[in-house]
Amino acid sequence: MADDFSFEIKKSCGSISESKSGWKIELNYVSWGGRDAKYDLRSWSPDHVKMGKGITLTPEELSSLKNLLNTIEI
């Protein structure tokens, strides 16, 4: 099953932070396993070969998250 693991970053939306080792937390538009792309927030190695745990969001979920974050006072 691990051999079937594939992904394609369709669009890079931006980076939130970068560690000393060069890994970045990024928001990207990613297709996992050939399925429709979703927004994806996770850490990536500099060459985008390795990744950390993350979350995927539909456009509607991303919009809801944006609205929620706009209500939070930082």
Gyration radius, in Å:
13 Å
Structural class: alpha+beta
Q: What is the end-to-end distance? A: 43 Å
How are strands sequenced across the largest beta sheet?
A: 1-2-3-4
Oligomer classification = single chain
Task: Describe the model.
- The chain is α+β, with helices and mostly antiparallel strands.
- It has one domain: Transcriptional Co-activator pc4, Chain A.
- Helices cover 18% and strands 47% of the residues.
- The chain contains 1 helix and 4 strands.
- The protein has one helix at 59-71; strands at 7-18, 24-32, 38-44, 51-57.
- Strands 1-2-3-4 form a 4-stranded antiparallel sheet.
- Strand 1 (7-18) and strand 2 form a beta hairpin.
- The longest helix is centred in the C-terminal third of the chain and has 13 residues, at 59-71.
- The chain starts with 6 loop residues before the first strand and ends with a helix.
- 7% of the residues are buried.
- The mean pLDDT is 94.
Explain the layout of strands and helices.
Blueprint lengths: L6 E12 L5 E9 L5 E7 L6 E7 L1 H13 L3
Antiparallel strand pairs: 1-2, 2-3, 3-4
Structural features:
single chain; 74 residues; alpha+beta; Transcriptional Co-activator pc4, Chain A; 4 strands
Summarize the structure.
The protein has 74 residues and is α+β, with helices and mostly antiparallel strands. Helix content is 18%, strand content 47%.
